[in-house]
Amino acid sequence: MMRLRRIEGQVRGLQRLVAEDTYCIDVLTQVSAVTRALQSFALQMLDEHMATCVSDAVAEGGEERERKLKEASDAIARLVRS
Amino acid sequence: MMRLRRIEGQVRGLQRLVAEDTYCIDVLTQVSAVTRALQSFALQMLDEHMATCVSDAVAEGGEERERKLKEASDAIARLVRS
Amino acid sequence: MMRLRRIEGQVRGLQRLVAEDTYCIDVLTQVSAVTRALQSFALQMLDEHMATCVSDAVAEGGEERERKLKEASDAIARLVRS
Amino acid sequence: MMRLRRIEGQVRGLQRLVAEDTYCIDVLTQVSAVTRALQSFALQMLDEHMATCVSDAVAEGGEERERKLKEASDAIARLVRS
């Protein structure tokens, strides 16, 4: 949650930079920083998801195991490709 | 500017999802959407930068040309790698 | 294995394009195709790894479970960031 | 050209790793290395393209300038998104 609030602050910072006509390249450097912060947040969420939901489903076995593994795999593919 | 305001709204939406204990995978889908929105914003800024600052510097030639091309190239590398 | 052989063929195709002085933009389009093929290969490997090694370790529990989850998480982070 | 030959060697190395049943995670680490090598090659090509073709078209002006800027921008978008 703290991370997302910080990211929201970074996006507001971007708006300020644009409003103040900051040099494009400096805005782009900031955009890359926000993108990396979002990725870190996503990777942390994914870790927790694998250590809890996916682990539980794997222990349970059966159809739920398949479903959760497929779901995690699709989410990872979206992160890798975005 | 409108784009950044929309992205800020998306990040606030993410906080709401987390606060409401939304299923991790659905949060992650949203994070991928925000990342893509940030990338589109960055690509649009880069386009404008190349069509204005870089073009002007190229027309001017000399040291300024070298400096602007190098700067743009570094910004592109940061975007590709983030 | 077939996938990797096809990727090797694509990389050789890139060398041919460069040797024949193909227009840069067309070479770059091909490079993006090879990068996507490599990503698909990595995602498929990761899927199999999670459905076998990680699942087994999770079922086993204890230290091995922690180690395998951490390892998978680090591999995902490398894929997302590369 | 040397870079692409090295990348071809890396892809053959990947096939060897898979054939020898190397641990998935170690294969994935190698895949990330090849992806980064391809990205570096693409970024270098793009640099040269901007310093030559795009620069020339910008100096020339007119329709050719528009076309080359648009083409470069599309290629950058493909790299950022792949």
TrEMBL record, chains A, B, C, D:
Keywords: Copper
Signal sequence region: none
CDD domains listed in its UniProt record: CsoR-like_DUF156
Record InterPro entries: Metal_Tscrpt_repr, Metal_Tscrpt_repr_sf
Family (UniProt): Belongs to the CsoR family.
Protein name, entry field: DNA-binding transcriptional regulator, FrmR family
